[in-house]
Amino acid sequence: MTRVYALTNHKGGVGKSTSATNIALGISAMLRNAGASNSRVLLIDTDSQAHATLVTTGQNNYDENNSLYTVLMADRQKATQVLSECLVQSHWDSNLHVLPASHLLEQAESELQGTAGAPYRLADPLSKLAPYYAAIVIDTRPSFSLMTEIAATNAIIPVEPRYLETVGLLSVIGKINDIRDGWRFANLCVRGIVVTKMDNRVRGHHYLLEELNTHPQLNQLLLGVIPMNEAVSYAHRSHASIFAYDPKATASKAYAQLVHHILSQKRGA
Ligand SMILES: Nc1ncnc2c1ncn2[C@@H]1O[C@H](COP(=O)(O)OP(=O)(O)O)[C@@H](O)[C@H]1O
Ligand SMILES: [Mg+2]
């Protein structure tokens, strides 16, 4: 079964889009380098701010005709066809395909209220296309969306090494587990936590990392630590991946290590 990774956290600015885009590319590149027969990865942008869409496709003006919004509003019988027609090849790599977000997504949920099967309008067509991909990565908006979590199999939670951020972690994990149990989605699990924007010079960051590492529940979930690195902002500005922008940057190496960890978990899980 194709894994669907959702980068999720109800907070903004924690590195969801940075992580989703670079993990998606990283998975594709690592599979290709390992000689895998399929290294296609699909990146789905579910945030109306469309940051992941902008950096990976160079555009953020997708609309009612060519974006995730189009898929959500499509006739259910045609939704898979519509989804495949809305996909865009990323300029990052021909094996990275993107389902773009649109500013219209803000109104989608209210437009769909009361529509039969509304929360499944992403998961259903996606499940038909999933076998074509080695992995699917979903970038989410800074609030919980049932529609997104239902489409996912593996939640990855990026978190900044700040006290109040880490306090919120257990509630994020609790919500994901509630969705799994309440909606009977046995396949949905919390795959792990990624600490982002770690500044080695800040003592408080070390304390929090130490707390995570010794926490009875959270310690097993720590997937990786991404350092604070200005190359990340420069890469965004150039609409480039961190790997292409500067393969030697500390964040580049950390994301490569994270992807390696995610893929080795995949084999072992
Ligand atoms: N490792 C990092 N080092 C430095 N800046 C980062 C890093 N990760 C993300 N950023 C910056 O933080 C901001 C928020 O990141 P983003 O990925 O858009 O978060 P989110 O999607 O959670 O809102 C962006 O300006 C981005 O360039
Ligand atoms: Mg974002």
Structure explained in plain terms:
- Strands 3-4-2-5-1-6-7-8 form an eight-stranded mixed β-sheet, sandwiched between helices.
- The chain is globular, with a radius of gyration of 18 Å.
- With 269 residues, the chain is an alpha/beta fold.
- It has helices at 16-33, 51-57, 68-73, 79-86, 105-112, 123-129, 146-151, 163-167, 169-182, 203-214, 230-237, 242-245, 250-268; strands at residues 3-7, 41-45, 88-89, 96-99, 135-139, 154-159, 189-198, 222-227.
- It has a domain at 3-51 and 131-268: Rossmann fold, CATH 3.40.50.
- Adenosine-5'-diphosphate (ADP) is lined by residues 12-18, 51, 142, 196-197, 226, 228-229, 232-233, 236, 251.
- Magnesium ion is lined by residues 16-17, 47, 51.
Essential attributes:
269 residues, alpha/beta, Rossmann fold, eight-stranded mixed sheet, 13 helices, globular, binds adenosine-5'-diphosphate, binds magnesium ion
Kindly summarize this structure in a few lines.
This protein has helices at residues 16-33, 51-57, 68-73, 79-86, 105-112, 123-129, 146-151, 163-167, 169-182, 203-214, 230-237, 242-245, 250-268, and strands at residues 3-7, 41-45, 88-89, 96-99, 135-139, 154-159, 189-198, 222-227. It is an alpha/beta fold and 269 residues long. α1 packs across α2.
CATH architecture label of the domain at 3-51 and 131-268: 3-Layer(aba) Sandwich
- Spatial gap, N to C terminus: 12 Å
How much of the polypeptide forms β-strand, as a percent range? 15-25%
What spatial order of strands do you see in the largest sheet? 3-4-2-5-1-6-7-8
Helix content: 40-55%
Which class do the helix and strand fractions yield?
A: alpha/beta
